[in-house]
Design a protein that fits this description.
With about 350 residues, the protein is α/β, with parallel strands linked by helices. It folds into two domains: about 60 residues, Orthogonal Bundle (DNA polymerase, domain 1); about 290 residues, TIM Barrel. It has twelve helices and 15 strands. Strand 13, helix 11 and strand 14 form a beta-alpha-beta unit. Helix 4 packs parallel to helix 5 and helix 10 packs parallel to helix 11. The two termini are about 30 Å apart. The structure holds iron/sulfur cluster.
Length: about 350
């Protein structure tokens, strides 16, 4: 049986090589070649002895998800549609997920998906309409970063930002997500700085508690989107399971690093959650917390039955928060800012940059 190498940790690759009767350090060489040098064919890992490469070509493989389509924006962004095989255990249907590569001055931002579809059912999110199709493997999550980086290698900026804000709730696919993130954050792997990686959650409290215990972890963003339980129950039914008092209490205990802020994302839905009273309630929710910031995300009208808040209303909302000491930003702009809420919402915003189809491969 062929062993899949993509998604394996350094330790797993060392064990794999040891099981082949090879020195374990060969596993570290494969790890470096795969994740740092983005060599997707064992024949390219030329610092391995020829006999081992020959053996690996028969016993191991590196499988990237099928690139079904690329959509290019005039501003240089590229949206990737990856086809995924059905999950073997549960025989669920084949699926596809999207990743978005967004270049900007001095950096590129890649938005990745962690599940095909999503079970969380946020009412402002297109992914919710798919339901959960299946969890992605660590290799499928890593590929969404490796493929765009490799394709753009001639023009890469020094800094890479990763945002886990594509399809899916990352904290409901915890282990594969963490395996992928540890490899991304490892200086010997992809070498992404934790300051440049953000995981956005709808507020899965046990997942936040688990993430808090991780030695290596990204920054955390909470998709808040409401000022009180009644409103949040309607927009994000997950709130019935983890209401605001419970969510805020886990946020209060969250161990922020010295350089870190806890980010709250708030999609401004006209006439739903954008009143002056909402702003005051958000202040009341957040003032007991240390080092928070808020991103207000103007809603882009589309297929879902919500309307945008006026720019004046958004500015009034922002000023109320800032006036009470809550740093608050309006995220109109591109790059990671356009991906500031989890789920297909962000992808909808990207779609409006008039992508055109370019050929796969
Ligand atoms: Fe899932 Fe995120 Fe969409 Fe909510 S916003 S349904 S958590 S993908």
């Amino acid at each position: 049986m062929m062993t899949e190498l993509l998604g394996k940790s350094k330790e797993e690759l060392r064990e794999f090589c040891a099981a082949l009767g090879e020195p374990a350090f060969r596993g570290a060489q494969i790890y470096h070649a795969l994740y740092s040098e983005r060599k997707f064919d064992v024949a390219q890992i030329t610092n391995l002895p020829a006999a081992l490469r020959e053996r690996l070509s028969k016993e191991a493989r590196i499988t990237l998800p099928e690139l079904k389509q690329r959509f290019a924006s005039t501003d240089g962004s590229v949206r990737y549609l990856f086809g995924l095989p059905p999950s073997e255990e549960r025989l669920v249907r084949p699926a596809s997920v999207e990743a978005v590569f967004m270049p900007s001055e001095g950096r590129q931002t890649i938005c990745v998906s962690t599940q095909a579809g999503c079970a969380v059912d946020c009412h402002f999110c297109m992914t919710a309409q798919l339901g959960l199709i299946r969890n992605l493997t660590s290799g499928e999550i890593l590929a969404q970063v490796l493929v765009p980086l490799e394709e753009h290698k001639a023009q890469l900026a020094p800094q890479t930002n990763i945002v886990l804000m594509g399809q899916g709730e990352p904290l409901l696919n915890f282990e594969p997500v963490m395996v992928a993130l540890r490899i991304m954050l490892d200086p010997e792997g992809l070498g992404i700085s934790p300051k440049h990686m953000t995981l956005s959650t709808s507020g899965i409290v046990p997942g936040i508690e688990r993430l808090a215990l991780e030695k290596v972890r990204p920054k955390l963003a909470i998709s808040l989107n409401a000022s009180n339980d009644e409103q949040r129950d309607r927009l994000m039914p997950i709130n019935k399971k983890y209401p605001l008092s419970v969510l805020m209490s886990v946020c209060k205990e969250y161990p922020l690093r010295t350089w870190e802020h806890l980010t709250f994302e708030y999609v401004m839905l006209g006439g739903v959650n954008d009143a002056v009273e909402d702003a005051r309630l958000v202040v009341r929710l957040l003032t007991p917390l240390k080092r928070v910031k808020v991103n207000l995300i103007p809603w882009n009208p589309g297929e879902l039955p919500y309307r945008e808040s006026s720019p004046e209303r958004i500015e009034q909302f922002r000023q109320i928060l800032v006036g009470r000491g809550v740093p608050t930003f309006v995220r109109y702009s591109r790059g990671r800012d356009v991906m500031a809420a989890c789920g297909q919402l962000a992808l909808l915003q990207v779609e409006r940059r008039s992508f055109s189809v370019i050929s796969p491969q």
